[in-house]
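BUG: 3D viewer hangs when loading the predicted structure for this chain

Environment: internal workstation, default settings.
Expected: structure renders.
Actual: progress bar stalls at 90%.

Input used:
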Amino acid sequence: MAQIVRAHDEHWAQVREIRLRSLSTDPQAFGATWETESTYDEARWRELLTEAAWFLALEDGTPVGVVASRHEADSPEDERELQGMWVAPENRKTGLAQRLTDAVLDWAREDGASTVALYVSPASKPAIALWESLGFTDTGERWQVDDEDPSTTWPKFARPL
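Structure tokens produced before the viewer hung:
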């Protein structure tokens, strides 16, 4: 069974590994690209670990899942945003996504949040079903991922703590 750990500075290479794998395996699921993030150097990956609470799912030291959460400057003070959730295909439907989400929810409570929110690709029906099964609901708010492509409008889901 995978172990969930809070990623710190010494985990930067594992975060890089799983994040780049997620972007190459499921590029449509993220508002970021492998082409951009693959150019980040070690210093940038270490910086990313200070900008958000990152959690890794590790099996024998190998990352098989990842999620991050932080307070966005344009969000309410008591809201934390869940970002970049990804579980390796061979580890899906094992409860790992719920365990990673639970780590974020626990961290968000400790960080003073009363709500956790996320944006999800409308094309990702399995992801929407996952979030709904975990108690997240569509808020009616939308994020335009690419200003020049109206098909990239992602719904915002939220869950009170």
